Amino acid sequence: MVFELTILGTNAAIPAYGRFPTSQVLCVNHRYYLIDCGEGTQIQLFRYKIKINKIHAIFISHLHGDHYLGLMGLLNTMNLRGRTEPLYLHAPKGLQEIITVQLKYSYSVLGYPIYFIETNQEESVLIFEDEKVTVHTIPLLHRIPCCGFLFREKAKDRNLMKEKIPTDLSIAGRIALKKGEDAIYQDKILKNEDYTYLPNKRRSYAFCSDTIYLPSLVETIKNVDLLYHEATFTHVHEKRAAQTFHSTGEQAAKIAQQADVKRLVLGHFSTRYHDLTPLLEEAKTVFPNSFLAIEGETFSVDE
Asked: Taking the model in full, what pTM does it have?
């Protein structure tokens, strides 16, 4: 089953060197979740052949323009493409007003409903749930209210030992076994532990948008399979990072190391860096399993 992250935008503040501002798509078992929506997001969605009307929910970390200014164009294109399915939009207070005003003065009416859900930047809380995933906020510390998002797969059914299951066991019996219950077969009890084994592990992804180095978030993201953490600057500009409430590559790697995550993806690069190699190298000295967020690349998490 699919659990993969596709990078759409990686730059901080403005587009530069062919890099767009922050945006990415998480696909979980063929359902799509858009995370941040910087300028040019819909161009990138088209470029990488991601069907925009398959996006089920959008998550916006904060209201700096490089994280949401691509949203209005995307919403209009969804409408022009005939979307009728509801769209769930999770964002800080204020975004609903921004969108409503733009729709009002452009005399635009969308052909699909948007459900606005305000995010909580102060604590980790459940903000979204469907049959695929749960999503919790990750409190971050930036110049304005900001949060990340923790995606976890829903618990899976147990796996059947097909070679042991009676071929004529009823569908109800099979469902009971998959749900962890015992089943009845010809007046006999089929013990669950004798006919099933544990499901594949639940996969997880943590998106940590703009933030100063914040060790307190370690407990929230402990042991995740894949972590995205901003790395706006190299350690040479650590003072500048602190002044602007951003992190360095080295600091992002320290968070990954302390949280014992499987893989780290670095992003939100300052325009002062054309060559991103120094950012990656300093992260790898602390956390070897570090990677750069390169637009168009996909990071898959195995079952």
From this structure: 0.90
